[in-house]
Amino acid sequence: MYKLITSDSKARRGVLATAHGEIQTPFFMNVATAAAIKGGISAPELSDLKCQVMLCNTYHLHIRPGDDVIRDLGGLHAFTNWNKPILTDSGGFQVFSLGRAGGTESSGYVGKPPIIKESGVFFSSHIDGKKIFMGPEESMRIQYNLGADIVMAFDECIPDGQSRVYVENSVKRTTRWLIRCQEEMLRLESAALLFGINQGGVYNDIRVKHMQEIAELNLPGYAIGGLAVGEAKDDMFRVIEAVEPYMPTEKPRYLMGVGTPSDIIEAVFRGIDMFDCVMPTRNARHGTIFTSEGILHIKNKRYERDDKPLDEVCGCPVCAQHSRGYIRHLFKAQEYLAGRLSSIHNLYFYNALMEKIRTEIENSTFTAFREENSLKLSELIR
RNA sequence: GUGGGUAUAGCGCAGUUGGCUAGCGCGCCAGAUUGUGGCUCUGGAGGUCAUGGGUUCAAUUCCCAUUAUCCACC
Prior knowledge:
- This protein is α/β, with parallel strands linked by helices and about 375 residues long.
- It is built from 15 helices and 16 strands.
- The structure holds one RNA strand of 74 nucleotides.
């Protein structure tokens, strides 16, 4: 399923085969939580943005419109008209994200935090407060209905700052859940690739032990989860470096929810193959643009009369047709087009960055590329 | 020309029956955002309260004059 082509130090260049075609690794998945890229980009349009894989979310789609509805409409590929690979997240992250802070801030919706039991998790819907139960079996069945090519195990994404005891117990449960996920996939006779998720907070030894345990299950791929959730950046890379040697070399490795262009380069350098992040689209909607020279805040006055494209060396359709001055204006006038054009550019930038990384690995020049670009790409243009 | 009103941050406005560091919205600047509950959140800069004089312990506030501006009338 996964074929390693070549490597440059720890950085790996490979091909991952799925029911909807091959994926060149390393790659970045474009996040379409509710079966739509936020910012108004349709799935067919992603093909023009060098996107290889779309990521959708189990929890959101289960609540609305319902995974049975999507199944009846032919699954996510037909539903969104995206005929390339799709990965679905398990809903495990929502145990984390719905649990923190209570959600009182801007949404105005005060939900009950999820309750975690051995059987699974009781959520209350962020749409109408309705009580929802999801465990490993439910998550696998939902993802089966959605028709994803790659499905993620149902795990608990542990919040930063939890005690050793909490993390140890949580990780043990995540392992038990993973075994149930695997069994349910067999029962469903699903052809999708099930990925296990490593947890363990920032405790190296718990991480390593957990990784060793789940590696024995011989799954098609493995993810590192529970990072970039508030811990220090040094901790994140420390954990990756600790866990990576225990991740099977012949399986794809996925760092969940990461990250900035710099984070991605640094993680590829440490042996990671797959990424996803809301950053290119969320930041685009807020006026933060990723370019080959670093980050620019397009809303700043300095771009008012700037007739250059967002990124002068970018090949995206937005950079071919629109100026910084125009896009700044769209933000100031609160036009939806601002978020759309910025999202198109940022996604293209991320996908093109991955393409560049793949080429650099093939040419054994990735280390030099990293030296030159890692810092620069995540710094604000002055 | 006469009568009346107004003058407070780049713009639009509050406010003070005279008394702490003069506020708000927009704009501007900066930061944040990492398996999306966010067209979001946090912070910052910027005022001789039109000008000159007077009363008072104390004036952006009260009084007088001047200037600008708006409205009405001749």
